[in-house]
Amino acid sequence: MAESRVRWRWLVLPGAALALWAVAHTGHTPAPDAAARPSATPDAAPSASPGGGTATARPDGAYEPADCAAAVRRYAAAAGVHPQLLMAILYNEAYKPHDPALERAWQHYKPDAAFGVANMHRATFDEVKRGRDFASRTWEELPDDRNLAVEAAAWYLHDLDRRLPARWPAGHSRDELLALGYNAGGGNMLAFARGATLGSQARSYLDRLHENWPAAGRAVAR
Question: Strand, coil or helix: what is 120?
C-alpha cells in the first residue's frame, strides 16, 4: 500500500541502494563512478495477469505510468473505481525508480519498503487479495508484474470506498478521500472525511494528485 512515505530518502539511491543492487547482481561493490551511471537493467516483461489489460514495458526499461493505461482501465472497471483516480495514483507513486532489481536492493536498506508501481506494502496486499482472482499471488511478485500491482491497487481503492460513509462533512471529494486513504490508510481517510486537518504529507500527496490529474485523464482516454 502507499502509506505515507518520505520522498527525500530516495535521494540516497545513487549511493546505498545502487551499491546493494550491484552486490546482488555481480557479487562486488561498484567502482566509485558506477553509482553515478543510470541502471541499464530493463523491467521484466509484463506477465499474463488474468484477464488481459496488459501494462506494457518500454525497451529501455524506463517507467512511465501512462504505459499502464490498458491495465488501469480494465482493473478500475472490474473494481468499480474511477480510472483517472487509479492512474493519478500511479503518477503520484512514480516518485521513485520502479526497476524490479532496484526495488529488491532497496528493501535490503529499508525492509518495510513498498513494492510495485503502486507502492503497496505486504500487509495491505495480503489483505486485499483475499477472495480475489489474484489470491494465489504473492507480494514478492509485485515488482515484476505491473498488471498485478495495478489490479491490487484498484481493489484496494474499492475496499477503501466501501468504508466511506454515505455523506461526510469535510469538503473533500470521494476521489480525494480515496487517494488520501491510499496514502495514509483507511483510518486516516475516515478522519479526514470527518473534518480532521490534513498533515503536511497528506496535503502534499493531495496536491500532487491535483497536479497529476490532467495527465492521468489523458492517459486513460487513449
Answer: strand
SS3 label, residue 115 = strand
The three cell numbers locating residue 112:
518495510
Cell numbers for 126:
495480503
Mean pLDDT across the chain, nearest whole number? 81
Beta bridge partners of 120: 115
Cα angle, residue 208 at apex, residues 205 and 209 outer, rounded to 5°:
85
CA 41-14-11 angle, to 5 degrees, is: 120
Q: CB neighbours (10 Å) of residue 209? A: 22
CB within 8 Å of 213: residues ≥ 6 apart:
84, 88
CA 216 – CA 219 distance, rounded (Å)? 5
Which residues lie closer than 8 Å to 12 by C-beta, 6 or more apart? none
Q: What is the largest CA-CA distance in the chain?
A: 58
**140-177 pLDDT tens trace:** 999 999 999 999 999 999 999 999 999 999 899 999 99
Taking the CB of residue 10, how many other CB atoms lie within 10 A of it? 14
Give the cell for residue 90.
500511479
Going by C-alpha positions, the residue among 47, 46, 78 that lies closest to residue 151 is 78
Amino acid type, 95: Y
Q: Which of 86, 89, 216, 92 is nearest to 154 (CA)?
A: 86
Angle at 191 between CA 185 and CA 83, to 5 degrees: 50
How far is it, in rounded angstroms, from Cα 118 to Cα 98? 9
